[in-house]
Amino acid sequence: MRTNTLRRGLVALFAAAISFGAITQAQAQPQADHVLRIGYQKYGTLVLLKARGTLEKRLAEQGFTVQWTEFPGGPQLLEGLNVGSIDFGVTGETPPVFAQAAGADLLYVAHEPPAPSGEAILLPKDSPIRSLAELKGKKIALNKGSNVHYLLVRALQSAGLSYTDIQPIYLPPADARAAFERGSVDAWVIWDPFQAAAEQQLQARTLRDGQGLVSNHQFYLAARPFAERNPAVLGVLVEEIRDIGEWVEDNVDEATAQVAPLLGLPSEITRKAVIRQGYGARPITPEVVRAQQAIADTFTALKLIPRQLVIESVVWTPPKRIAQHAE
Asked: Which of 33, 164, 170, 258 fits 144 for a cystine, CB–CB 3.0-4.6 Å?
């Protein structure tokens, strides 16, 4: 009975993403041949890749067009992948775990280097809270199943608290910020660029970021059927993502100037988010698999997912000729 309840809860979590406007009309349409549908969020390398247009040019040579859909968070993006409205996307560490537990047929394709300072537990500027231990009994806003969900769990553990010691308030970023501004919650666990915006615009204080607690990897994921049919397309995608990431590292100011209007944020906020991100897409390593397995095991132990997962079973293995280019 407990397992069935949890499974229904996971299905409800992913179904709720639809109410946030994350899933477009495309989910009701059959997948078109020779179309790569990419889901992205309001941050990260894919925003620049979309603006640059080089991916479209390269894939046109293989007879593919590219469609882009923006999502408010990783759980909503992976619901899009699960229901067949996108083929590929990027999320933080935790959404793939919840998606796999809910039965999504996904594959880990690549990851970015750690970016632990790109997510944090924020407090209102006048909050009396000064330590993690003081979060006991407090209302904390977060996007359920997102990367910051794991940060919160790890931060509480580091202070000798359990997840049941706080009152989680599950909200997508825009609603969470509104609740944070009006004082309806005591803290907000959030990622960039929302994190940088709250720091600058609301003078939010950082109680704890991810340093020393989590890696905060970004993962590129694909629907298994698409990956199995189109390994060469994924190879091109990873190359383009890696190339633009390396460019950002060497051109922070120019990247900021390009990203700021796309995000609708001032340059000083955008630059902070750009600097805190990890760049350089690379293949999934055994070390990264172990780290993801630890996250999955943590949520299993908390009974927030209904079954034991095997992360290794959902890692994409590219053909040898493609893998050589990814090294």
From this structure: 170
